[in-house]
Amino acid sequence: MPKPVDADLARNRLLAALPAEERDRLLSRMDSVTLDYKQVLGEANQRMEHIYFPTSGVVSMIATTQDGQRIEVGTIGNEGMVGLWAFLGADTSPLSAVVQVQGGAERIGSDEFRRAVLPGSRTHDLLLRYAQAMFVFVAQSQACNRLHTIERRCCRWILLTHDRVRGDEFPLTQEFLSEMLGVRRASVNEVARELG
């Protein structure tokens, strides 16, 4: 029996954009789950068992250097999906996926997802366009990380998160923000004083 499309499900823009028949077929294979703050959805270079379509909250895609430093290279909210690598045919991702703002998601097993999304379907075509948009977003993020001041990067991060959580309040620590921006905590402290 198809899962009804309630107001929360429609908050994931990818799912909401699907034709009803394809959306219902995909949703019938999904479970609604809670995304907890700092929950690891997938570790770099390890198989991620599930694909997530956030309906609320925000997930960070994090790169880790050989010396253990971590930096956010992209974020995913209700506009997308976590696990794009599976759609593109890879078994693992070079990035970790960590919840930065708690929320909810629709979840489907990676193998089940691959079987459900058929080449030539509207879902397949939509996900190809999403992959292109995600690559552009990551490229812009990296240009921002290289060319903009810490203040501008911090403001960009806060505004992107604000848009995705659809609210004026979300939990944020200077320690977490410094890790996401790849800077010292003292630098974030200075920015927070200027913005305060």
List the helices and strands and how they pair.
Elements: H1 13-17, H2 20-27, E1 31-35, E2 40-42, E3 50-64, E4 70-76, H3 84-87, E5 96-109, H4 110-116, H5 122-147, H6 150-165, H7 174-181, H8 185-195
Antiparallel strand pairs: 1-5, 2-5, 3-4, 3-5
Please count the beta strands (DSSP E, at least 2 residues each). 5
What is the first-to-last residue Cα distance?
A: 51 Å
User: Roughly what percent helix?
Assistant: 40-55%
Helix tally equals: 8
- Summing up helix and strand content along with how strands pair, one would put the structural category as alpha+beta
**Approximately what portion of the residues adopt beta-strand conformation?**
15-25%
Can you give the mean pLDDT? 83
Q: What is the rounded Rg?
A: 17 Å
Net shape: globular
What's the helix-strand series? HHEEEEHEHHHHH
Poorly predicted tracts of residues: 1-9
How many strands, what sense, and barrel or not for the largest sheet? 5 strands, antiparallel
Task: Describe this protein's structure.
With 196 residues, this protein is of the alpha+beta class. 43% of the residues lie in helices and 22% in strands. The chain contains eight helices and five strands. A hairpin with a 5-residue loop joins strand 3 and strand 4. The longest helix is centred in the last third of the chain and has 26 residues, at 122-147. The protein is globular, with a radius of gyration of 17 Å. The N and C termini lie far apart (51 Å).
Give a short overview:
With 196 residues, this protein is of the alpha+beta class. The protein has helices at 13-17, 20-27, 84-87, 110-116, 122-147, 150-165, 174-181, 185-195; strands spanning 31-35, 40-42, 50-64, 70-76, 96-109.
